[in-house]
Amino acid sequence: MVRVNYKKIGEKTWQSDAWQSVDPEANFSKKIILSKLSSGSTYELMIEGRPEDSTKISAQITGKFKPPPDASSSRKIVFGASTCQGYPDQDHPDGFKIYPFLESLDLDFFVHAGDIIYYDNLSKNKAMAHYHWDRMFSLPTNKSFHAQVTSYFEKDDHDAWFNDSYRGLESSFMGEFTFEQGLEVFRKEMPIKDKTYRTFRWGKDLQIWLVEGRDYRSPNSQPDGPNKTIWGKEQMDWFKRTVKASDATFKLLISPTPVIGPDRKQKKDNHSNKGFYYEGEQIRKFMATQSNMYVICGDRHWQYISKHPKYGIVEFSIGANSNDHAGGWKQDDVRPEHLYLNVIGGTMTVTIDPDDNSSITVRHYDVDGNQLNEFVAYAESEK
Questions:
Q1: Based on the domain organization, do 48 and 94 belong to the same domain?
Q2: 41 and 116 share one domain
Q3: Residue at 263 is within a domain
Q4: How far lies 32's CA from each of 4, 191, 233, 248, in Å?
Q5: Does residue 383 lie in a domain region?
Q6: Domain count, the chain
Q7: Which domain holds residue 326?
């Protein structure tokens, strides 16, 4: 059984949730929704566990988290992002170097933009799929970081099923483990309450959109056109409606796959290339009507910043979270749309600062936390 205790930092009295049984079908986990939190505060957490037939507490985890400030609060926000996290490509005795660095920044929140784990080689059944989540989040660097930082998660192909996978694809490579089971395991393992596409407001000056790129996807092999989709109609309508309704100074689409690119010629599985060009154009045309809207993307194993030559939309590729996992692009292949290119592992932070003339600052780092590039822009008036 498990119980959550929480209180604002500085307060003496803990608020305690009722003891609840864990779910054997969800890898012996339990989702607990906390409500009536004070926006913009920092909370301490103490999670306790005990056997069902005993009152003696047998396990305890401590940590902290920050709920978002409300939409009227104008304050500096700093968040981090990561993607493409291969378990065999660890670069620290306890996991990954980026996490101690990011933890030292006291971030407001963190987004993992997909490929949190890679099912491809070992997950031949559902039990082995859950094992991949167990081993990744048992790494001391990952455990420590996520115990201290509010975190959001997206999935891409490798944490849905396997490389470039989609519903309806037939393959014996994954053994007994199916695409539908992959979607189910993700929902059970991740702290997501409702739909896997969602939006979060972080004060007056920032709103983020996290999108779903696998659940509603047409086959990659389908000819491109109006009926081919990654997002599906419901998600596309939701995206446009909520973006239009937002009065946040900066709007960030955080996508598991690129929207702007450039990408490799042979790729055909995302909005930046010919495979889903039609829907990609619908997104780009819409975003071009919005002021101060940017894209952050996962999936690509190299860092870049690019600016679309026609629409002027800027996209930030986070890059793989370790050097051994980086690759897929040639360092000397700098295209006209590139503002920054680095085939290297590392991480990225975004700072929204209303006191610095309403600025957005995006910094890329190597795995040791050394800054490699800084992009700064200032809020423009509404279009």
A1: no
A2: no
A3: yes
A4: 8, 9, 31, 29
A5: no
A6: 2
A7: 68-378
pTM over cut 0.90: yes
272 pLDDT band, cuts 50/70/90, is very high
Residues 25 and 113 in one domain: no
pLDDT for 36: 87
pLDDT exceeds 90 at position 125? yes
CB of 103 within 8 A of CB of 145? yes
Contact criterion met (CB below 8 Å) for 226 and 188:
no
pLDDT digits (tens, 9 = 90+) for 233-267: 999 999 999 999 999 999 999 999 999 999 998 89
- Comparing C-alpha atoms, which of 353, 372, 366, 350 is closest to residue 111? 350
* 48, 67, 86 - which closes a domain: 67
**Averaged pLDDT of the chain:** 97
Residue type, 38: S
* Any domain includes 203: yes
| Domain termination residue (choose one: 67, 102, 125) | 67
